[in-house]
Design brief:
single chain; about 240 residues; alpha/beta; Glutaredoxin; 2 domains; 6 helices; 7 strands; about 15% strand
């Protein structure tokens, strides 16, 4: 009996040792998988962050005319066409009426709105170089979003923006100008600039926000350069 008991204890100890080794290998394998997954996720986050930064800051380096080579499309209505009427509530407390500005040159800036901070940075930078736009003959500049008026009133107050921002919550104007076709989301405009001349006709248009670049910020020097080229009869991509 003593020998039999000893043999049983030895077999039991061996089984326990084997079980321990299997668990140890399993834990090591799991840690290895988690480590690899963590590294992969970290790399993916960095790559996506870099893509987002380049896109939101206009990081495309191929395509159109202009010193910065930022790709843009030219939507419809385009240069030479009559600008559709605009009657929208404004953050300055008035109702903006494009027809009432005949005789003046007006820059319309359609943008994505509250969820796009680079769009508001764009507006602040435009205001910071207002004289450069005035030198191109621009008399009035307004921005247009599809956000509710109360929300954008709060945003322009928080950002210290004086440029009037028009509320187009029903997409009435955005769709007449097809500005909603150049954004990342179906419920917002893209990043579109339209210059309307004193005769009410469009003189220049650039839709920077379209696929595949989805640019949400244009350096002011590039924006001015593209506008000058467009006014001289040279359009972008």
């Amino acid at each position: 009996m003593g020998a039999e008991t000893y043999k049983q204890k030895k077999e039991m100890a061996s089984r326990k040792a084997n079980t321990h080794r299997r668990k140890t290998r399993s834990r090591s394998k799991s840690r290895g998988i988690l480590l690899k997954a963590s590294v992969f996720v970290g790399i993916a986050v960095m790559v996506l962050g870099a893509i987002f930064f380049l896109n939101t800051r206009g990081g495309s380096s191929s395509g159109s005319s202009g010193s910065g080579n930022y790709v843009f499309q030219v939507g419809s209505p385009g240069p030479g066409e009559q600008a559709p009427p605009i009657h929208l509530a404004s953050t300055d407390g008035n109702t903006f009426d494009l027809d009432a500005l005949r005789g003046k040159t007006v820059l319309l800036y359609f943008q994505e709105g509250l969820g796009c901070q680079p769009c508001w940075d764009q507006m602040k930078d435009i205001e910071g170089q207002k004289s450069a736009f005035q030198n191109l003959g621009i008399d009035t500049m307004v921005s247009i979003t599809t956000n509710p008026l109360d929300a954008i009133k709060q945003k322009v107050n928080d950002e210290g923006i004086s440029m009037p921002v028009l509320s187009d919550p029903n997409f009435a104007v955005s769709r007449m100008y097809n500005a909603d076709k150049y954004g990342m989301m179906s419920n917002a405009d893209g990043h579109t600039f339209i210059l309307v001349g004193p005769d009410g006709k469009i003189r220049w248009r650039a839709d920077y926000g379209g696929a595949p670049n989805y640019t949400m910020y244009i350096p002011i020097s590039t924006l001015l350069s593209d506008m000058k080229e467009g006014l001289n009869g040279r359009t972008g991509s």
